[in-house]
Amino acid sequence: MHLADTGLACSLLGVNSQSLWQDKALLGQLLETFIYQELRKHADWHGEELKFYHFRNKDKVEVDIIIEQGRQIAGIEIKASATVTQSDFKGLNKLKTACGEKFSAGVVFYDGENILPFGEKLFAMPISILTP
After folding, report:
1. How much is the pLDDT for 46?
2. Amino acid 102: pLDDT
3. Which of 122, 127, 2 lies closest to 52, judged by CA?
4. DSSP string of 48-108?
5. 6-130 has CATH 3.40.50 classification
6. What is the pLDDT at residue 5?
7. Contact call for residues 36 and 28 (beta carbons, < 8 A)
8. What is the pLDDT of residue 58?
9. Domain ranges of the chain
10. pLDDT value at position 65?
11. Long-range contacts (CB closer than 8 Å, 24 or more residues apart) made by 119-122
12. Helix and strand tally (H, E) in the chain?
């Protein structure tokens, strides 16, 4: 479940920026929610309907956000980290294999500054790209 306002969520949980940095699990959850909401805002500007899902296979490999447009699928992973490694693409690679030609892109959003390629149709992108 995603509470639309991460500031409100922090207030209800009684956390501030300092305590949030100390609780990496909570930071990750709130960051996922923030990015999900930003993507939903961007989707409203899209000409065609975009559907949002979560992916988890029988081996419990997950992808945080799946975006479907028609027969095309994109996967999104969120990392509260300034670095990205190939292992951060584990779920996206599984999704890519499962979807075949329907897979259009896989993105890991991270707290870095550069857009980085990680293979065919796989990229690491800075979180800051979502906000003006």
Report:
1. 78
2. 97
3. 2
4. S--EEEEEE-TT--EEEEEEEETTEEEEEEE--SS---GGGGHHHHHHHHHHGGGEEEEEE
5. no
6. 78
7. no
8. 85
9. 6-130
10. 96
11. 119/89, 119/93, 121/96, 122/89, 122/92, 122/93, 122/96
12. 4, 6
pLDDT of residue 2: 58
Please state, in angstroms and rounded to a whole number, the distance separating the CA atoms of residues 127 and 113.
8
Residue numbers of the chain with a pLDDT score lower than 50: none
- What is the phi/psi pair of residue 103, to 5°? -75, 120
Q: Which two tokens stand for residue 99?
A: 């979807």
pLDDT for 78: 95
* Confidence (pTM): 0.87
- Closest by Cα among 35, 77, 31, 98 to 23: 31
| CA pair distance 79, 118, nearest whole angstrom | 15
> Using an 8 Å Cβ cutoff, are 4 and 40 in contact?
no
From CA 124, how far away is CA 75, in angstroms rounded? Answer: 12
69-7-65 Cα angle (round to 5) = 25
Cα–Cα distances in angstroms (integers) from residue 63 to residues 43, 76, 96, 113, in the given order: 19, 6, 11, 22
Residue with tokens 């790209």: 129
